[in-house]
Every structure is written in structure tokens, then in C-alpha cells.
């Protein structure tokens, strides 16, 4: 009997352990664009309604990754909304072209002058520019140094890096840009690799993209912090190779890949793509880009969140 009770206690301890430790990334949330479901630029009230919906899901989401600073008045509208809800923001500064980069920097400067820096989780200069070959790695490095110089005048602990696909991060030609980063932000989509959901889960396709990136970068930057900028699975749209959009597949992907990344203490931050469906996104591939939300465009969750 005593043995039985000991076993029960042990079982209870093991079951409780994960929730007691609260092992998780410091920052947990979604990568989100600046347009409403009708395609309009989000107002401060729109951003706040988005953030409150995400907070109401009760899973500890505390941070949002943005793509732009000046476009759609993103920072001017999103920062006060984040402050009202208690969320932090991973700022996005578009790196191309030169005129756009200048406007993005000016919008970040203006947001810091208005709102201080306590709302900043970090700054990403550029998003998938190396993957698209829109900028040379050396030019991107110069712009990362440029933005770091600007923000560090206000707060010396702000981390400035870049977001790109795992395939760009493991390409040695881009190491010069990587070396300019305080942190590396990784995007990986087994769906866009054409991997069937069952294989993506079993072979840990997404986890392997994170591990491959770390292995490549730790060889020359052993203390580099890693974040995930985007991963996700669509619920509608065309098949891509062996990858099929479906609610069951997206739910399965979320429970496996997303829950793994959100619970990974070796990642500083992790962002799922995305919170809400975006009906005005491109119609290519059967409109698949519209359907990466874990909630529909009316902010209603498509499945019960496991994490
Ligand atoms: C300085 O930046 C860090 C990191 O972004 C932030 O957590 C902290 O709150 C900022 N400090 C102030 C005084 O705003």
C-alpha cells in the first residue's frame, strides 16, 4: 500500500513538473502584419483589439513581432496599444530600398522619442532579404550597425539582429551579416518545403531547421542568441508538393512544432505565423497566404490551444 502511494505521488510529481517549472521562451507570440481583415491599415484600436484577443487565449503570449516601423504607421499605432495591454514588440525595420530604410529608421527614432524603450523586446533589421537576395550581406551588416548605433544612444541593452529563412542562415555567404547581429531570428516552414505533415512531425523538419542553423552559426559565434521569427501551417489553399493545408494538419503542426518552440528555453523568443487569417493577402497558391491564422479573421480560434 505504501509502495502504491509512493508510486502515485511520483506519478503526480512527474505530471506536475512541466507546469511547475514553466520552462518557456522569454517572449512568446505571433508575427503579425499591419492590415485589418478589410486591408485597411490597423489603427491603434485595431492593434489593441488584436492584442487583447491574443491575451484572452490565456497561454502566456506576451510579445508580437512586427514587419515594419513606418508602413501603415505601424509603430505609432502598435506601440501605445502594446503598452495598454502589457505586450512587448520585436520591431521590424525594412532594409530595402534605401529610401524605405530611411523612413523605417525615422519611424523607430520617433517611436523611441515618444514612448521610450521599455516596450522593445528587440529590433530586426530586414526580413528574408538574404533569402530573396534583395541586399548584399555586407550592406545588410552595415545597416544593422547603423540601427544599433541609433537605438543604443537611448538604451544600451537593446538587441539588434535580422530575420531570415533557415536556408539563408546556413549559407556561409551570409556569415558577414550574421556577425553583425546581436541575435539571429529564424523562419522555417515545412509546408513551403513541401513536406507532408506526417513526415514534418515524425522527422522534426522544423526542429532540424533550428538545429542546423544553430550548428552553422555556433561554429563562429558560440554565444549567439536564437529566436524563431515565423513558422506555421495553413488551413486552406493549394497543396505544396506533399504538404496539404487542412485544419487538422495545422492543429497537429501547432501541437508539435509550435509547442516545442514555445517551450524551448534555448530560444529567447518565438513567434508563430500567424494569429489571425488575412483575407486580403495574395491569392497565389489557392490563396494559402490568407489561411495561416490559428484564428479566423474574426479572431475566433480554429482549435483549442494546447500551449
Ligand atoms: C532597455 O531595453 C531593454 C531591452 O530591450 C528593455 O527590456 C528595458 O526595459 C529598456 N530600459 C528602459 C529604461 O526603457
TrEMBL record:
It is a lipid-anchor; GPI-anchor. It catalyses: Hydrolysis of (1->3)-beta-D-glucosidic linkages in (1->3)-beta-D-glucans. It is found in: Cell membrane; Secreted, Cell wall. InterPro entries: Beta-glucan_modifiers, GH, Glyco_hydro_17. Keywords: Carbohydrate metabolism, Cell membrane, Cell wall, Cell wall biogenesis/degradation, Glycoprotein, Glycosidase, GPI-anchor, Hydrolase, Lipoprotein, Membrane, Polysaccharide degradation, Secreted, Signal. Residues 1-23 form the signal peptide. It holds the Pfam family Glyco_hydro_17. Belongs to the glycosyl hydrolase 17 family. This is Probable glucan endo-1,3-beta-glucosidase eglC. It comes from Orbilia ellipsospora.
Amino acid at each position: 500500500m505504501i509502495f502504491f502511494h509512493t508510486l502515485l505521488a511520483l506519478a503526480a510529481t512527474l505530471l506536475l513538473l512541466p507546469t511547475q517549472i514553466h520552462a518557456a521562451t522569454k517572449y512568446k507570440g505571433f508575427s503579425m502584419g499591419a492590415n485589418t481583415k478589410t486591408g485597411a491599415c490597423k489603427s491603434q484600436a485595431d492593434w489593441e483589439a488584436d492584442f487583447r484577443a491574443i491575451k484572452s487565449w490565456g497561454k502566456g503570449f506576451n510579445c508580437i513581432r512586427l514587419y515594419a516601423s513606418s508602413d501603415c504607421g505601424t509603430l505609432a499605432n502598435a506601440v501605445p496599444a502594446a503598452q495598454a495591454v502589457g505586450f512587448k514588440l520585436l520591431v521590424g525595420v525594412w532594409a530595402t530600398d534605401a529610401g524605405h530604410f530611411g523612413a523605417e529608421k525615422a519611424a523607430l527614432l520617433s517611436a523611441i522619442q515618444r514612448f521610450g524603450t521599455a516596450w522593445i523586446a528587440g529590433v530586426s533589421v530586414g526580413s528574408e532579404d538574404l533569402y530573396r537576395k534583395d541586399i548584399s550581406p555586407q550592406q545588410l551588416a552595415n545597416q544593422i550597425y547603423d540601427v544599433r548605433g541609433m537605438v543604443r544612444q537611448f538604451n544600451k541593452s537593446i538587441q539588434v539582429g535580422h530575420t531570415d529563412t533557415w536556408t539563408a542562415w546556413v549559407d556561409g555567404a551570409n556569415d558577414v551579416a550574421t556577425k553583425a547581429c546581436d541575435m539571429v531570428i529564424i523562419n522555417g516552414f515545412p509546408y513551403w518545403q513541401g513536406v507532408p505533415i506526417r513526415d514534418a512531425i515524425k522527422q522534426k523538419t522544423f526542429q532540424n531547421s533550428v538545429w542546423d542553423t544553430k550548428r552553422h552559426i555556433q561554429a563562429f559565434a558560440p554565444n549567439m542568441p536564437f529566436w524563431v521569427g515565423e513558422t506555421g501551417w495553413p488551413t486552406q489553399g493549394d497543396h505544396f508538393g506533399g504538404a496539404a493545408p487542412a485544419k487538422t494538419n495545422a492543429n497537429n503542426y501547432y501541437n508539435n512544432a509550435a509547442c516545442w518552440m514555445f517551450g524551448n528555453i534555448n530560444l529567447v523568443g518565438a513567434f508563430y505565423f500567424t494569429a489571425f487569417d488575412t483575407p486580403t493577402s495574395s491569392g497565389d497558391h489557392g490563396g494559402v497566404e490568407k489561411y495561416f491564422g490559428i484564428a479566423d479573421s474574426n479572431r475566433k480560434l480554429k482549435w483549442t490551444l494546447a500551449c
